[in-house]
Specification:
It contains 25 helices and no strands. The protein has helices at about 1-25, 30-40, 45-60, 65-75, 85-95, 105-115, 120-140, 145-155, 160-165, 170-175, 180-195, 200, 205-220, 225-235, 245-260, 270-290, 295-305, 315-330, 335-350, 360-380, 380-385, 405-435, 435-440, 445-475, 525-540. The model is unreliable at about 135-180 and about 505-560 (pLDDT under 50). It holds the Pfam family API5. This is Apoptosis inhibitor 5.
Length: about 575
């Protein structure tokens, strides 16, 4: 009973101190009262601590000399076991954050609290951070604000050396390690809470968007794949890179991606991280290629650095590389197509048999034929010396006076052998696919059904690949073939276009393409689907290992920032 009375008296005393401070015209004359409120944090009274968590922030700015003392008390409060005390303290941080001296400390503490398992506490942290960011922008309209800059740096991570040079950033980096749960929660907070209100935060818009762009360009030297994708998505959402932006703006985005891909570095087949980063970056660049940015550096790197050692690349990485080049080939210019075509033909001859065999690597052949068509469409006469065709453009590069008949004979034999092999494999697959529905009906467990459906989907994609190979190889038999340079072919792993709905009475149905994919007269939807599926797969989750440990260029070695597929 005595303890209860003492606790009630302590709470009453704090209310009196608060009332005195509230009514005082010159609060600085009541420093002793404020010190008493701060001191109550050290006691055992839970209700008194909860009340102190309200009063300390309320009068914080009136006693700058006690600022450090008050801040330490608040930090003690957010470490208390009692949830109510922690939440009250978190709600008070926006008032403390009006003093720039303590911004980095507050950012550090709130960043740690994002890992809380209590939903109500995590929600309070989100609201406190957003309140801090908003009030900081209002007080500094010509800058994004100290806190929001620090939050950006907490993710994009300038690098350890630079953080040591900037005192205000040091507290933010002690928790930012590979695989850190705090790091992951901060990323989610930025993505879900900060980025959606960027229009509110970035004012004046054009100036602030340029500021953030320059900040990210300078700072993305050491990030995980997920983090880089996060910030590239953010940049692409800015108005300076919007639909009406000039071509130069999109080239600027490509240059940021090129820097991440290490296109100036010598290709090392043993560096899996570089292979994965190159593949991930070019997929990320695909929607920017469609806006007119150049794919030259990526395609030239593939031709000069990757193709010569393609045999030595791990098998599980080869297909991803070929898919990136296939997806990029529609955006290659004639000069790049001319340089890349010999490498593509070289790989085609490797994977297309000269006679009928039991099976081929249909995924490789599909990618390479698709790439061949799109590159040859840009520079058709280059195929004269490579494949023995007789395409006349009137240019000296036609080389019509030279005899390439052996090249033609070899190429046609390989096309025929590939077609015979694919037709036979397609027939076998068709027979097998007829049994899937029956197998699903007779499956006894959901696990069995799931496995059968996965096999069915895989077989469907294989059949698409076979159909595509036949659709792309058949036009290549003539001396002057027609190269497919549009979107008639939807690659098997891309999102397939929806079948056209039947028209009303009296109308005509749209005729499907010969390979069973997109209608010939419709623009395919495959690019976006392929990009979404594969980029998301490339950057799924926070990579936990691998990373930039090769010690190559730009001081990246040893930090474990993985880029790999999962």
């Amino acid at each position: 009973m005595a303890t209860a009375n003492a606790d009630a008296a302590e709470v009453e005393r704090l209310y009196e101190l608060g009332d005195r401070l509230s009514s005082a015209k010159d609060k600085s004359q009541h420093a002793a009262d404020y010190e008493a409120i701060i001191a109550s944090v050290k006691g055992q009274n839970v209700k008194a601590k909860q009340l102190a968590a309200q009063l300390i922030p309320r009068y914080f700015r009136s006693f700058p000399a006690l600022g450090t003392f008050a801040m330490e008390a608040m930090f003690d409060l957010v470490e208390m076991e009692e949830l109510a005390i922690r939440i009250q303290a978190i709600r008070g941080f926006p008032l403390l954050g009006k003093d720039a001296e303590f911004i980095s400390k507050i950012a550090d503490i709130l960043g740690q609290l994002l890992t809380s398992e209590e939903n109500v506490e995590r929600d309070a942290v989100h609201k406190a951070l957003m309140s801090l960011i908003r009030q900081d922008v209002k007080s500094c309209p010509m800058a994004i604000g100290i806190l929001s800059i620090l939050l950006f740096f907490k993710i994009i991570q300038i690098c350890w050396r630079k953080s040591e040079e900037i005192d205000s950033l040091q507290p933010l980096f002690k928790h930012v390690e590979s695989g850190s749960e705090i790091r992951e929660k901060i990323i989610c907070f930025l993505r879900d809470k900060v980025f959606p209100v960027k229009a509110e935060l970035l004012k004046p818009q054009a100036e602030m968007e340029r500021y953030i762009t320059d900040l990210i360009k300078k700072s993305v030297q050491d990030v995980t794949g997920l983090e880089f994708k996060l910030f590239m998505d953010f940049l692409r959402s800015l108005s300076i890179f919007g639909d009406t932006a000039p071509r130069e703006s999109f080239q600027e985005l490509i240059e940021i991606i090129q820097a991440q891909a290490d296109l100036d570095a010598q290709f090392d087949v043993s560096d899996i991280d570089h292979i994965e980063r190159w593949t991930s970056c070019i997929y990320m660049a695909l929607p920017i290629f469609t806006r007119g940015a150049s794919s030259s550096k990526f395609l030239n790197y593939f031709a000069k650095q990757i193709v010569p050692v393609f045999d030595k690349i791990p098998e599980e990485k080869k297909l991803d590389l070929l898919k990136t080049v296939a997806a990029s080939s529609p955006y290659a210019v004639a000069q790049d197509s001319r340089q890349l075509l010999p490498s593509v033909v070289q790989l085609l001859k490797k994977y297309m048999p000269g006679k009928k065999v039991d099976d081929i690597n249909h995924n490789y052949v599909e990618c390479l034929l698709y790439t061949f068509h799109h590159l040859a469409h840009k520079t058709p006469n280059t195929t004269n010396s490579l494949c023995g065709y007789k395409i006349v453009t009137g240019q000296p590069s036609d080389r019509l006076g030279e005899d390439f008949s052996e090249h033609y004979k070899d190429f046609i034999e390989r096309l025929t052998g590939t077609e015979d092999t694919v037709r036979a494999a397609s027939k076998r697959l068709t027979q097998g696919m007829a049994d899937f529905n029956k197998a699903i009906s007779s499956a006894k467990t959901e696990e069995e059904k799931t496995k059968i459906k996965a096999d069915q989907q895989k077989s469907t994609m294989t059949m698409r690949s076979y159909n595509n190979i036949l659709a792309m190889s058949q036009p290549l038999h003539g001396k002057s073939p027609l190269f497919i340079g549009d979107k008639k072919i939807t690659l098997s792993w891309m999102e397939q276009p929806k079948k056209p709905a039947a028209s009303t009475a009296g109308g005509k149905r749209t005729q499907p393409a010969s390979n069973g994919n997109a209608p010939l007269n419709k623009k395919g939807r495959g690019d976006g689907g392929m990009h979404n599926q594969l980029v998301n797969r490339a950057f799924e989750g926070l990579p936990r290992g691998g990373g930039r440990g090769s010690g190559r260029g730009r001081g990246r070695g040893g930090r474990g920032r993985g880029w790999g597929y999962r």
